[in-house]
Write a structure and sequence with these properties.
Chain lengths: 437, 498
């Protein structure tokens, strides 16, 4: 087999060196009841050619050749060629977590650069080396807020991504953290501040909002932070569309930022792998979950980097750790790092401006249901037709329409969430608008 | 000898090499009217420029990352004997198929009719993993091993809650990985450690004593972190099950068992797998991983939504899961990792996977035989895919396992796992995996043997290693004492905290 680099003669020499008759004998100590007495019921191994063939066939059953207006947490942005060029290098692709700093400086430097760029982007003072994804960063941020405030209540806006809220509930239920939701304003689509005011109290550890929110509407972070802080709670700011940070005011008033970087050259890939982040103020640094890289020197006095503040982590603190997280998303974070490098200061702004222009071109045709300012996503009412009827009609034109919202918001029955990015073409937007008529 | 010195290049940080106006991108020209940001978003919502963000050209970008890459060790450069990490070869065809358009660009909310290929891939991997583990159902949702552990423990809690009492404690052997107790705590359980016997197995007498109606489950690793298969498995499961508790198996060591034995056949109720270990998906410098969870029928109703079901001639997602533990992650899991793992299983096939296991165990035993004359072997039970020595002999001469590990770098190898498991004082934990040639193993054995001799003749040489790397011994204590976690312009000084 091509992945097993030994000849039969070499195997024989090794078996002899082990003092056994055959390699099988190395398993003879296993109790009889434990042994599998038959071959695995799996097809025989196949060639590289056959593997490619199989997956090409699966790929062909997908949506290649379709234009798409799906967003809702996963965005179609162009992936610069350099991204895959860099992450395909075996030195990055096939290395382990950089615990051995002397032979892992490549990974360590890129993570340090990543942490720095996330801070520059979010207005926070420290950022970790990445989380599994945006959705799991939410409960991690909530637990972090609970540790900092010594409280356990969580208030989360209904305008936060529904699947993120579900993940929070799964964790919170077992942490003894009561979670309450507060509504959105039916006019603007932004979080309803009055509802927040009526629910927040001195047991609230965290107020969690997303901006742009799940409806694409930009939240008033300053006001939200002011309300949270007046009650001694922390404001947790979530983002799912990282490109928005190229043009939107960074959430510097928040205490913890938890986000998803999929927009930064990470393939939609049917929902993962992505990379989440947690960033915060310096004073909360020691309560952060996840790996951190720090600058130091080597024994010759040269600048060097290493994983640091590990005393927060599970392999040292065990059950008292800040999180059980072990793996981060280093290679995916590297994709985001290359993306941020290629676009840079000027490019990320221009990219955000293009997204804004495309979405507002479409928005002008479809009339967003909410009045709040939006970036590259908005909710459109379907004017008497059901979202399903519109989407089916669009599929015939090889266009995937928007995400119907009634699955999570029964009150938004005839509405769908639409997203336009720099990859959306004018002709497809025009066709989409026609389907509304 | 595997290594000789060579030139490496210096490289500044991105933030130190930019110049205003330099770019590495070009966007297509807009086919719609430009929009005034302030008018569209409101002045208060529009940011100033991103201070400090990179400004480099495409050429500089690729040189930057390529130069940095040469500062890394990697599987593609040689043996990576990290015990418990299963650093095996990452087949490149897996990278290619994961990037095919219809898979890589599949949106999680695209119509099911246009996602049949992706769903087929997931269903096929679920079925293969169920067969490999001997379990009844698999969820691919967890993003990594520790995430899978959490999912598994939440499933146990849900079942026990339904039976009327979630119970209070999780039992964990003292040889366990650190994520085990951390996971139990996140799932709302307290942790009770249990001791290993002199042969490294779970102590049945102690287990019998501590299992009571407060115990929800035992989290055990088998083969354990010594690389030893616990012969008492049937007895262990019986004790737990008799008292209404469950058996969770930590699946990081599954590379020792695939095709040879199935946890579902020896009493395990729930386990996770690490796709980035046993199933060859690349570690990527610390992720992404994949942590599917396999369960027995009794736990199936609690698996997170959505589940896939086969309708007459197509796959559909089923979100009606009233007893599910809730989602542990948005969408369906690390699909790109799932594609790679399936490609690996297809390449090997059933017999091939078993052959790989046999080679993995042969490699570990070969290393054990060759190094036993030079290093102390505290647990002599037959080992499977990894072997754990101690630095007992070398420590008497003032050289510890961490020193030997750093010296190994000078010989061109990544170190083994240092000082773990905790039950071995000064542990050297070595896992070669099946994808190492005899030549590479012999070079490693030669290096380890040479170091053992150096400890006797020149211990200081070993203690002060590594000597040949471009970065010499790194001051980790200083890094933690004055954390500098981001770059800042020199004139304001590097950021420090606490």
């Amino acid at each position: 087999m091509r992945y097993l680099p030994k000849s039969q003669a070499e195997r024989r020499q090794m078996v002899e060196a082990c003092g056994v008759e055959s390699a099988e004998q190395l398993f003879s100590h296993l109790p009889d009841g434990v042994r599998l007495k038959r071959p695995l019921d799996l097809a025989p191994g196949i060639s590289e050619y056959d593997i490619v063939d199989y997956f090409r066939a699966r790929s062909a059953e997908g949506a290649s050749g379709y234009a798409s207006f799906l967003g809702a947490g996963v965005y179609a942005h162009y992936r610069p060629v350099l991204v895959d060029t860099v992450v395909s290098r075996g030195e990055f692709l096939t290395s382990y977590t950089p615990y051995q700093a002397e032979i892992s400086q490549g990974t360590l430097v890129t993570i340090f650069e990543f942490q720095t760029m996330i801070c520059q982007l979010t207005g926070m003072e420290v950022a970790n080396a990445s989380m599994y994804d945006g959705s799991t960063a939410v409960p991690e941020a909530a637990m972090m807020a609970a540790r900092i405030t010594g409280r356990d209540g969580v208030l989360i806006a209904r305008s936060v991504h529904p699947e993120y809220r579900e993940v929070l509930l799964t964790y919170a239920r077992n942490q003894g953290m009561p979670v309450q939701e507060f509504g959105y304003n039916n006019e603007s689509g932004a979080a309803e501040l009055a509802d927040l005011e009526s629910k927040i109290n001195d047991a609230t550890a965290a107020v969690i909002v997303q901006s742009p929110n799940f409806f694409g509407v930009i939240e008033n972070v300053k006001r939200l932070a002011e309300i949270a802080h007046r009650h001694g709670a922390l404001l947790v700011f979530i983002f799912t569309e990282a490109v928005s940070l190229g043009i939107l005011e960074p959430p510097a008033d928040a205490d913890i930022v938890a986000g998803e970087l999929q927009s930064f050259a990470i393939s939609p890939s049917f929902g993962g792998p992505f990379a989440g982040i947690i960033a915060t103020k310096e004073k909360f640094m020691r309560q952060m979950p996840g790996r951190l890289v720090g600058e130091t020197v080597d024994s010759r006095g040269n600048r060097a980097f290493c994983l640091t503040l590990a005393t927060r982590e599970q392999h040292i603190r065990r059950e008292k750790a800040t999180s059980n997280i072990c793996t981060n998303q280093a290679l995916i974070a590297l994709m985001a790092t290359v993306f941020m490098t290629v676009y840079g200061k000027q490019g990320l702004r221009e990219l955000a401006e293009q997204n804004l222009a495309k979405a507002h071109y479409l928005g002008a045709k479809l009339k967003p249901r909410f009045s709040g300012a939006y970036f590259n996503e908005f909710v459109a009412a379907t004017n008497g037709k059901t979202p399903d009827v519109i989407n089916q009609a669009l599929l015939k034109k090889k266009i995937i329409g928007g995400v119907p919202l009634n699955r999570w918001y029964p009150e938004l029955e005839n509405s769908m969430l639409l997203c336009a990015t720099e990859m959306s073409k004018r002709e497809h937007m025009d066709q989409l608008a026609e389907a509304w008529q | 000898m595997k290594v000789r010195s060579h030139i490496t290049q210096n490289e500044a940080l991105l933030f130190e090499m930019g110049s205003p106006g330099k770019v590495g991108y070009q966007l297509p020209s807009l086919d719609v009217p430009a929009v005034d940001a302030v008018a569209a978003l409101g002045r208060e919502n529009v940011r100033a420029e991103i201070e400090g963000f990179p400004e480099v050209s495409e050429v500089e970008a690729i040189r930057h990352f390529t130069r940095l890459s040469t500062w890394n060790y990697a599987i593609d450069l040689g043996l990576y004997p990290l015990g418990s990490c299963t650093m095996k070869y990452n087949p490149r065809v897996n990278e290619l198929v994961a990037r095919l358009d219809g898979l890589a660009w599949a949106h999680p909310y695209q119509p099911e009719a246009l996602a049949q290929g992706a769903m087929e891939v997931m269903a096929r991997l679920e079925a293969a993993l169920a067969e490999i583990t001997g379990m009844d159902a698999v969820t691919l949702q967890p993003a990594a091993g520790a995430h899978g552990e959490l999912t598994g423990i939440l499933l146990i809690r849900a079942l026990l809650e339904k039976r009327g009492n979630p119970r209070k404690k999780i039992l964990i052997p003292d040889s366990a990985h650190g994520t085990n107790p951390a996971t139990a705590a996140i799932a709302g359980y307290t942790v009770e450690n249990i001791h290993s016997t002199a042969s490294g197995m779970v102590d049945l007498a102690e287990l019998e004593r501590v299992v009571d109606k407060d115990v929800a489950a035992l989290m055990m690793t088998n083969p354990n972190t010594l690389g030893v298969f616990d012969d008492n498995m049937a007895g262990v499961a019986e004790i737990l099950h008799k008292k209404g508790a469950l058996v969770y198996m930590y699946g990081a060591n599954m590379n020792a068992l695939v095709g040879i034995a199935r946890p579902g056949d020896f009493g395990v109720d729930v386990m996770h797998l690490n796709l980035h270990k046993t199933f060859s998906t690349p570690h990527g410098g610390g992720g992404p991983g994949g942590g599917p969870v396999a369960v027995k029928k009794i736990l199936e109703p609690f698996l997170p939504a959505p589940r896939m079901k086969r309708l007459r001639n197509r796959w559909a997602f089923d979100y009606k899961r009233p007893r599910a533990i809730g989602k542990v992650r948005a969408y369906y899991g690390n699909f790109g990792v799932i594609v790679r793992a399936l490609a690996y299983i297809l390449a090997h096939g059933g017999d091939g996977l078993r052959n790989a296991t046999v080679d993995a165990v042969l490699n570990a035993n070969y290393i054990r035989r060759k190094l036993e004359p030079f290093y102390d072997l505290p647990y002599t039970a037959p080992n499977m895919h990894e072997v754990v020595f101690s630095d007992d002999r070398q420590a008497k001469l003032g050289v510890r396992t961490g020193d030997i590990a750093k010296r190994l770098i000078d010989y061109g190898f990544h170190p083994y796992t240092v000082s773990f498991p905790l039950i071995v004082h000064g542990a050297l934990m070595i896992e070669p995996t099946e994808t190492e040639s005899k030549l590479e193993l012999d070079l490693f054995i030669e290096a380890m043997t040479a170091i053992a001799k150096e400890v006797e003749t020149d211990p200081q040489l070993v203690r002060s290693a590594p000597h040949s790397t471009r970065t010499s011994k790194v001051d980790e204590v200083g890094a933690a004492r004055r954390p500098i976690l981001r770059w800042k312009p020199r004139e304001t000084g590097s950021q420090t905290a606490d």
